[in-house]
Specification:
Strand content: 35-45%
Number of domains: 2
Distance between the termini: 58 Å
CATH architecture of the largest domain: 2-Layer Sandwich
Largest sheet: 12 strands, antiparallel
CATH topology of the largest domain: Alpha-D-Glucose-1,6-Bisphosphate, Chain A, domain 4
Helix content: 10-25%
CATH class of the largest domain: Alpha Beta
Amino acid sequence: MNHLFRIAAIAAASVAATCLAEDRILRHEGVIHAPASEIWKNFQTGEGIQKMWSVPKADVDFRPGGAIRTTYDPQGTLGDDGTIINQIVTLEPERVLVLKSVAPKNSPDFIKAICETGWSVLRLEPLSPTATRITITGMGYKDGELYDKAYEFFEKGNAWSLEKMKEAFEPPDRQAKADAIRKRFESMVGDWEFSQSTSDGGIFRGKTRVEPLFDGRVYFAAGFLGNKEKLSRHSHFTAAVDPRSGEWSVWNFDQDGTFTLAPVHLEGNTMILDWNSYSLESGVMIPYQVKYIFLDDGTFDLHVQASPNPDGTRNTIAKVHYVRPADAGTPMPYKK
């Protein structure tokens, strides 16, 4: 353990030792529509703190033992009696930031009290490539009138700060993109099939049926794969807005019990699913990617791509061309 992290560990232990089981905890959480990596980068600069916390002035020494300094006074100077100092106790990159505040010299007694005994933990939980749950936990609230005032003050103040963070990262076109994804799923309602020759002279074919549920809030698809003689059930696919992230996602199970959670996004005429699959046997996640490339004639190509190579490129595992069957009104007899 290097010197800085030894200091951070001792400081964290010292802070934790001040918290008793009966101390109150203040917790706020919300979803920010940005990658955890982007949010984390903003913690590392004064400009990022100004953006996220809506303060006119800030500077950052981003390391265990360093500090984030801010002032809400546009005419103030960092280091003056109105400066708020958040000492960085310890951190886990892109996941956890532990802060202990030093009260400004001109702050009221209840602020000085909680800064003496309390600290804050900020947790970042990635929900998708473009959504992160932020949890702000304040600890060290003891009994007494001063702590009651501090609790009430930061209950409102932390909620305000969290809203400012949400606003700072909110994409202006997020709803438009969500509506476009829903329209793409709506365009896929019905029966689809593909058939192509294999290298050994056989036939590889498949069929998928997409159905809307609950007035289009959910889309369900049953997929079948097989050869010239028969089709077998391959996957169960559900697309909907994930209530945790507020973004369109796909949940899928296949015939081997593999579970996939796939955030969805659009790039032009291509719908991309980050196909994060978890094997039933190992539980290990493999980050495939599936692309639906919609063509002008109403058909689409489906590309399945492997995990990223070291250079970021992906190899294509499978590529098929889906069309609507001529007898779309007559369901194909599926075999179990």
